[in-house]
Structure formats: C-alpha cells, structure tokens
Amino acid sequence: AQKVTQAQTEISVVEKEDVTLDCVYETRDTTYYLFWYKQPPSGELVFLIRRNSFDEQNEISGRYSWNFQKSTSSFNFTITASQVVDSAVYFCALDSNSGYALNFGKGTSLLVTP
Amino acid sequence: DAGVIQSPRHEVTEMGQEVTLRCKPISGHNSLFWYRQTMMRGLELLIYFNNNVPIDDSGMPEDRFSAKMPNASFSTLKIQPSEPRDSAVYFCASSLGSSGRGGAQETQYFGPGTRLLVL
Questions:
Q1: pLDDT tens figures, A36-90
Q2: What residues 19-58 of chain A have any CB closer than 8 A to a CB of chain B?
Q3: B100 vs chain A: nearest CA distance in angstroms?
C-alpha cells in the first residue's frame, strides 16, 4: 500500500518567517517518485518539484528547499523568508512504478500574514 | 508553451442534467489523467489514458461517469445524469508517460480545473 501523510493541516506564519511543511510516505516499491504541488487560492495545481528515490540530495530553488531522507521516509519542504504570495495549500505526492495515479497527501494549508 | 487547458472553468447545473468536461493536454504528452478533488476525499484518480487508450478506469465512481479520448489532443469526461454528490473540482493532467508505466516516471502537469456544482 502507498500512503502520504501530511500531519500539519494548517500553518500560520508571519511574513519573513521560515516554515517547514512535513511529508511522510509509505511504499514497498524501491523505485518511486516524490512530488510537491502548490494550490493557491485560485485553485490550480502547480508543480514544484519531482524527486526520485535514488537521489537523496537536497534541492534548493530560490527560497524553496527540499529535504529527502529515505531513512525516515520523509520529504520535507521549507520556505525561507516566507511571503504573502506563498499562502496556498501544499500537497506532497507519491508515484511509483506499480501504479498510475499520484497518491496525494491531504495537503497543508499555509497562511502567511503581513 | 500552453499548459493543460480545461473547459469550462465553472459549471453550475441541476440534478439530472448531463455535464461534459473538456481537456486539451500539453502537446506531445501521451498520458492523460482525470482527477476529482473534494474536501472529504482529497484528490482521486478517476481514469488514466495512455496513447488515447483507457488503461485504468477503476476510479470512475459509477456508470454515470464516462470518459473518452478520441485523439491525442482532446479528452472529455461526461456525467449523465449528474447528482449533487458529484459536486467537486475536476482536474485533467498530462505527462510524457511511457507505455506500460502509466507516467510513473514523469511529472503530471495539471490544468486549472473545472469547478462543478450540481444543485
């Protein structure tokens, strides 16, 4: 069975604070892919990052960074110096060779206030 | 480059009416997915096409739902008759999926979604 858990339902921070969104996954596959998507208030799903199970290097893209740790089955997402425009629901997702669908977590709603 | 295009963006209809949602995938992508998003169930895969052929429709709720992909650049999701519990956001996504692997190795890019309300 495959499962993605985003334990944080809602997070509220003040602008310029750093915030980490947690993602824990379960899979029996040795080859799998992890994703983060952003869903702003306008409703679309925006792809942020894709990481395969063989690449545990952390990734940084501007204010965004991702920490992939197979030992703890986690793929956490950090926003540095958060901005109001970062307010959105963020979804972590898992994909593997044994299925077709992206298995999404329930999402974490991030609110950044001025 | 154009992303995934969906129409309509919003649909309000009455129970019993037929609803047709449309999707144009990203050019060159050979995998297409229909997802439904609700508060209760989150994002669920309804059906997956690869090279215009339905590969997995196990997520389609019931016979009232049908999907077609007549060519590589167009897909429809039809609900007939619609019911209030079908109210949700319906997303179409496409990827450079490799045959037999259902796009598991490629990123799925989502359209803006169709927000459906059945009264």
A1: 999 999 999 999 999 989 888 888 899 999 999 999 999 999 999 999 999 999 9
A2: 33, 35, 37, 42-47, 50
A3: 9
Q: What is the pLDDT of residues B26-73, one digit of tens each?
A: 999 999 999 999 999 999 999 999 999 998 898 998 899 999 999 999
Between chain A and chain B, the number of residue pairs with CB atoms below 8 A apart is 57
How far is Cα B71 from Cα B53, in angstroms, rounded to an integer? 9
Chain-chain contact of B103 with A45 (C-beta, under 8 angstroms) = no
SS3 (DSSP) at B39? coil
DSSP secondary structure of chain A: --EEE----EEEEETT--EEE--EEE-S-SSEEEEEEEE-TT---EEEEEEETT----EEETTEEEEEEGGGTEEEEEESS--GGG-EEEEEEEEETT-SS-EE---EEEEEE-
Nearest to B112 among A43, A98, A100 (CB): A43
Which residues contact residue B112 at a Cβ distance below 8 angstroms, ignoring those fewer than 6 apart?
A: A42, A43, A44, B4, B6, B9
Query: What span, in angstroms and rounded, lies between the C-alpha atoms of B45 and B58?
Result: 9
| Contact state of B105 with A107 under an 8 Å Cβ cutoff | no
CB A59 within 8 A of CB A76: no
Using a 10 angstrom Cβ sphere, with 0-12 exposed, 13-18 middle and 19 or more buried, the burial of residue A107 is: buried
Rg over alpha carbons for chain B, rounded to the nearest Å, is 13
